[in-house]
Design brief:
alpha/beta; about 170 residues; 5-stranded parallel sheet; 5 strands
């Protein structure tokens, strides 16, 4: 069984994340989407909320959504994944992901990394952009999966950070 790990903060998941997983689903038997718990980050959404949003965003039979406080390298070893999947939008993403790859390789030895280019129509989509849209009560259509939109808005409203209607 060919497996890959797609790890990230996913705060929140976007259509770009979904596009990466859709492409990986054509190659791998199992795509493990891992919400990474990083004590140095202060995500807007809880790990549980992000997991629920990911499950709504990626309702594919080959996708397994988990959370982990381990390194990506440890997660690869633990899950038996063949490949570490990364989505890239531009050269900056490529440079960042390549540097992280070499750090991970030092931790767990050589492994395969696969960089999946983002579809051109989603190059502007990021979790940061979604958080900004939410903050200013703007429409998130075209940034998040329609299946996850209502849950995202409900989670955001529950945090009492929005002064207006979304």
């Amino acid at each position: 069984m060919k497996k890959c790990v797609f790890a990230g903060t996913f705060d929140p998941p976007t259509l770009g994340h979904k596009a990466v997983v859709e492409r990986a689903a054509k190659i791998f038997d199992e795509v493990i989407v891992a919400v990474m718990i990083n004590p140095d980050k202060q995500p807007l959404f809880s790990a549980e909320e992000r997991i629920e949003l990911l499950k709504k965003t990626m309702p594919f039979s080959c996708v397994r959504v988990i959370s982990s406080a381990k390194t990506a390298a440890e997660l690869m070893s633990e899950t038996g994944a063949d490949c570490y999947l990364r989505g890239i939008r531009n050269g900056t993403d490529f440079d960042y992901e390549t540097a992280n790859y070499y750090v991970s390789e030092k931790l767990c030895g050589e492994f395969v990394a696969m960089y999946v280019p983002c579809p051109q129509n989603l190059l502007h989509v990021s979790s940061s952009a979604v958080r900004a849209l939410l903050k200013f009560s703007k429409n998130v259509d075209g940034y998040v999966a329609p299946e996850a939109k209502e849950a995202l808005l409900d989670f955001y409203r529950a945090k009492n950070t929005s002064g207006g209607k979304l």
